[in-house]
Amino acid sequence: MTSVALLPDPSSPLARESAAQAFADILDAKTSEDAVADFLIRLAERGETSIEIAEAARALRQRLIPIAAPADAIDVCGTGGDGQHTLNVSTAVSLVVAACGVPVAKHGNRAASSKAGAADTLEMLGLDMERAGAQAEATLRELGICFLFAANHHPAMRRITPIRRKIGRRTIFNLMGPLANPAHVTRQLIGIARPDYAPIYAEALDQLGSDAAAVVAGEEGLDEISGAGPTRVVTVGAVPLPARIVPEDAGVARHPTIAIRGGDPAYNAAALRRLLTGEHGAYRDAVLLNAAAALVLAGRQTDLRAAAAQAAEAIDAGHANTLLDRWIAWS
Q1: 252 carries a ligand binding annotation
Q2: Which enzyme class (predicted)?
């Protein structure tokens, strides 16, 4: 196995070829675990470049188990790690946006730093993870939504997981989830908990061939469009979203982030069901705000207020709740 000394020196930015080779070797287990841990730690301490993020994602994409998806499918996903422990906003947004007629290939996982990840909450609602994965192409085609459980599609990450656990801190692999969707979507609303890093992340998306994407970061460090205040937005492609979004842009009220504080999977699942059956409040407004941006990104609207109204109609008419019930019935 390659030693630490033979890996590229992460104290200076890696050239594209060096980055590609380094991450190929890491994912193919051609480097020792100690070498990988040392490399990832030093890379994080220096700060990853857009080239390194793009090449890590490209290496992971080349090793994933893919599914077929419509060309206009989108994903709504965050990198996680914001420490806010909120309710499952992107999961609810995925259901609402799909109920508006946009195919959604939702990529997600179980909780890592929060109490309930997308998979945990959907499973508590009755979605069978194994069957949902096996029928992902069919439900995306027939219902307009699927859940791509990361553990089922990224065998190369099995080697990385214990290394990340041993390191116990953020590494470049914390950024990979949204960049390695098994449906190869080219339209994405991605939340990142580091506003200063949004432009670098967007550059990586551009290098990976995104058609239309928006990287959003709440200024308080939230990995979604914040319902509490301003959010930084960096777009890729022709996406008519402003560089700064506040809740009022979509016609919704501001709420402190603590108002959407989540809990365990049962708590989050109950909150999501109440949302879909018409409950108003901070959770609904956060979902409408993010769904509005996703609908604009998908080309269904050009105005956040009109998009939020469309999302509200999908909830109030029962379309999003019915979609969830149909999805569960498939599993």
Answers
A1: no
A2: transferase
Give tens-digit pLDDT for 112-167. Answer: 545 678 889 999 999 998 899 899 999 999 999 999 988 889 999 988 989 988 88
Q: Dihedral sign for Cα 83, 86, 88, 93, please.
A: negative
Does 110 belong to an annotated binding site? yes
Residue 303 annotated in ligand binding:
no
Specify the 3-state DSSP secondary structure of 149: strand
**Hey, is 267 helix, strand or coil?**
helix
Instruction: Establish whether 151 is an annotated binding residue.
Output: no
Asked whether residue 215 is marked as a ligand-binding residue, the answer is: no
Structure-token pair, residue 298:
């998908």
Q: Is 9 annotated as a binding residue?
A: no
The pTM of this model reads: 0.94
Question: Can you tell me the distance from the alpha carbon of 113 to that of 97, in angstroms, rounded to the nearest whole number?
Answer: 26
Tokens 């192409």 locate to: 137
Q: End-to-end CA distance of the chain, in Å?
A: 43
